[in-house]
Structure prediction request, 378 residues.
Amino acid sequence: MLTEQKHEDLVSAIHDAALDVERWPSAIEMLADVLGATGGSLLRQDFVTGKGAMFSARTDSQFSNRYNQYFYKLNVLPKRAGHRRVGSCLTDRVILPKEEFIRTEFYNDYLKPFKVQGVMKIYLHADETCEGYLSFGSSSTRHDWEAEHVELLTSLAAHLVCATQVNRRLQSTRLINKGTLEVFDRLSEAVAITDGDGRPVLLNQAAEAMIAEADGIAIKDCKLQVGNRSETALLQKMIAATSRGEVRSPEASTLTISRPSRRRAYRLFVAPMRRTRNWLPSEPGGAIIFIRDPESARPLVDKAYLCDLYGLTPTETDLAIELMQGGRLTAAAETLGIATSTAKSHLKRIFDKTGAHRQAELVRLAAEIGTVMERRRR
Prediction:
């Protein structure tokens, strides 16, 4: 019934569906062919709302439509089957006697018109709130599902369950990434994410606008180029060192960039991308670059808001804002009229209260707070 080559093809199709839900119809159709089924369906039953949803392959379009609109309420199989272990495969005859099943409204008004005599299902997901399963129908012109069909589908259970788990995790990841990108683009601060070689991986809208202005920031030869050659070389070294985790001081992660227009220089802050430990070979490190234009600068955050948010003293708040706007510690101390040693003590307390560890992280924090403030103004 199932050759070795056909088994390999099926497993491959299921793995393809794991990475791309749009490929499930192809996998379901291949399974339906091997089983001799009328068609196959992915179903979800919600125990909280009582609603069910179906997606079908190789069936009349009305098969899914009628189920989703009405007949999910009459499907006696989920309730009679109860909670089942993920990966278990069973037929309608295991759930309730055939004589009883063919007398139900679900069978006579829904399955029978589509020439479906029997149902075989395999559970792919189950928790307290819902269950998901793959179901196949047997034709009224042939015998009902037999043990060999159950065994065949059960042999593929591990692959099918794994595929749906990957689908769910990828869906969650995509939702998180979509939200992150939306926040990233809403930042008023220009931000660029690069790999360890200085190649841009992601630019927010503010950074793209700054590059389009062509006033000291550009992308050439697939790498971020700034100011003059010496400044670009310094930035590349800074990115490489930051990506390797070798930057230890704020001075080593900040850079002043000259502009052809002779307007005030850009200030760049380079922060490392956080990397998680993994037993798999890890991707090369990268860097987050915050680009500040003093010509369009405005207070990144409201002083009172920042003070209340982190419990900073007035002096700590003033110092934090100076550093968030790109000032060096010594220059900030001079501006505030305090000794550098005093400024260092204040900075340590600022780091403790905000959770930051370096100036570049304060800049990143300011950008995040700035987005919140912008939303409030709207």
